[in-house]
Structures are given as C-alpha cells and as structure tokens.
Amino acid sequence: MTMASSTLHSSPGNDPADYRRLRVGSARVLTLPVAEPWTREAIRTSGTLHEWAAAHPNGASFPGRGQVHAIDAPVEGPDGRSRWAVRHYNRGGAVAARLGDRYLRGGRSRPQREIRAAAAARDRGVRTPAVVAGAVYPAGIYYRCDLVTEVVPGAKTLAHTAHATDGTRAWLEAMAAAGRLASDLAEAGILHVDLNAHNILFEEGDATRAWVIDLDRARIRARSDSDTAERMLARLTRSVVKVGTPTGESLGDREVLAALRGKA
C-alpha cells in the first residue's frame, strides 16, 4: 500500500506478518485484519481511535501517563478478550511539559515499535496483551498516536498488588513472579528499558502469572544475555523500592532484588 509519508513507518516488510497497513483520511493505521472495519469506522466518525473510545457508552477510564479507555471488544481478538484498551500516547519525563502528546516524525512510530515488540514477545513465549491496532495522526513535523490492546481480565499492576496482598508470603510470590518475567524477557532477547512496578500486570486472583505492557521503547535482540536481565532487574528494583511494601516496611535495593530473584 502506498503511504503518503515514509517518515512515520519503515517499509511494510518490517511489520509483523499478521498486521495490515491502512490509510484512513490523514491517519496511518497498522491493524489486525479482523479489526480493520472497526478502525476505519472509528476514525471516520470520531477522528481518532481514542476519541471514539472516550465516547463509548460502556467505556471505562484508567489512570496513568497515557490516557486509557476500556471498551467492549467490537470483534474477537487473538486471545478472545471481552474488553479492549485504547491508549493515547503521552510523553513522559522532561519533555512532557513542552511536547505533551506529540512525537517527532522520523523512523518507526511509537505504535509500530510497540506492535513489533509485542509480537516478538508473544512469539517468544512472554506474556503480554495482544495488540489489535495502532494509529498515527500526522501534525506537521509531529504526530500523535493511539494503541489498542486486549485487556487482561481484572488485571492489577505490581504496584497495586504489592500493597493489596494480605501478607509477606503473597508479596514474595508477586515479587518472584515479576522477577521471572524480567528473566523471560531477557531470555527472549527483549530489553524493556523502563520495566517498573506500574507496567507489570497480574491476572485477577493470581499473583504468580505476570504480564508486561508498555513495550514501545523495548529493544529486540537476536539472543539473550545476562546484562539484559540485570539491567531490567536493577530498574525494576528501584521502582519497587519507591512503591514500598504492604506493611509499610522500608526495604533497600538488596532486599527487593533478593525478592525478585525468589531468594528472600
């Protein structure tokens, strides 16, 4: 398919095989074929996928850096989930105040990066929600963008789970599961550069099965190495130390890292 600008995406050959490129008005979309009719209709009627979701009668909003709305799944996705999450990307860090939700055009867009990383992670056995579609909305030298994923039922973040557990044993189980997830990512050759207590999820009622989200900055590598695992564990350790424990006990890096390794 001919694209009006090659600065938002690389060549179609670099897209995961299951996804299809579309152009809806000025929007560039990368979507699973099953979701193509919905993505076209949502953008045509509301301008963006996120605006469509925000107006959905059965929608629900989630807090966080990105604006996220959960909607009833219009069609069945890869994992057959009943709800989809529609996230509008926002900048973080020092540039957030100046750029807000704008990204500079050039190279792969944030949705394309996340779709590629999520597809690679799932192919390599890492638990991460299926991405249904991503959309980019050009605006001069910048673009804004949305991402649509399936929702893990009743999912809670590691940060929430750490405080909601009923005691030390449950906290240790959640920490060990998060540590295993970091190891799984490393073994799969995927470096999540911002792995933290807010982008690790647990299924409802099960603190032993961890899922990872926010893969738009992940780096895909051909092979695993010990440095990748250690880097992610170090970043996750700092995040968990900030979150604290369900008892309010203050723990240092050494204690948290031991819990993540399952050796506490």
Task: Walk me through what this model shows.
The chain has 264 residues and is an alpha+beta fold. It folds into 2 domains: 12-150; 156-260, Transferase(Phosphotransferase), domain 1 (Orthogonal Bundle), CATH 1.10.510. Helices cover 33% and strands 22% of the residues. The chain is built from 8 helices and 13 strands. Strands 1, 2, 3, 4, 5, 6, 7 and 8 form an 8-stranded antiparallel β-sheet that branches. The protein has a 3-stranded antiparallel β-sheet with strand order 9-11-12. Strand 1 (20-24) and strand 2 form a beta hairpin. It is globular, with a radius of gyration of 19 Å. Residues 1-11 have low confidence and may be disordered.
**Helicity level, as a percent range?**
25-40%
Average pLDDT works out at: 88
Major sheet attributes:
8 strands, antiparallel
The helix/strand series, from N terminus to C terminus, equals: EEHHEEEHEHEEEHHEEEEHH
Structural class: alpha+beta
* Shape assignment: globular
Would you report the number of β strands? 13
Q: Tally the helices: what do you get?
A: 8
Brief overview, please?
This protein is of the alpha+beta class and 264 residues long.
